[in-house]
Each structure stands twice: as C-alpha cells, then as structure tokens.
Amino acid sequence: MYLNEAKKLANYIKETSEFKDMKRNKIELEKNKTLKKQLDLYLNKKNEIYSKNNIKDSSRLISNLQDEFSEFFKNPVVNNYFESNKKFNNLMNNIYKSIENELLKK
After folding, report:
1. DSSP string spanning 2-48?
2. pLDDT at 3 over 90
C-alpha cells in the first residue's frame, strides 16, 4: 500500500515545474562535455572538502573553491542548472516538512 502512495508522490513531483526545469537544465548542461566535466570536478572537490575537513575549515575552503570556479558559475547554462536545482531542493524541503508535520500531529 505505501509503495503505491510513494509512486503517487513521485509522479506528483515529476509533474512540478521545479522538477521539469531541473531536468531540462541538467540535460542542457550535459550536452556540453566541457561544462559537464567542470561540474563533475567542482562537485568532487566540494564533496572532498566536506568529507575531510571540519565546518570552519570547510567554509573557508568552499569559499576558495567558489572563487576558483567563478567564471564557470557565470555561464548561463551552469547558472540555470544551479538555480533550478535550488528551486527543486526547496520544493523537496517543503514536502519533507509537510510529511514531518503530518507525522507529528496528535
């Protein structure tokens, strides 16, 4: 039964503009092999920083990383990708909060 409800939720999410925009922007970015390679490099470096450092050092290192990739982020395709990801993540956060609120109701 819960699997059926989970599928309904997934189908709802797939129909949102946030998901559609994110998917479209991801496909657009991945068409450009150079941008895709730079994105992968950035994400790998970012994940490495967070996994190997404390919070204080991570903040400083992430700031340096963003400076290093500043030209990359100025690219409209890249910017659209990150903006649509941010909007999708906000949607998912709101869904999680709604689920949590329902679970905590008395």
Report:
1. HHHHHHHHHHHHHTSHHHHHHHHHHHHHHHSHHHHHHHHHHHHHHHH
2. no
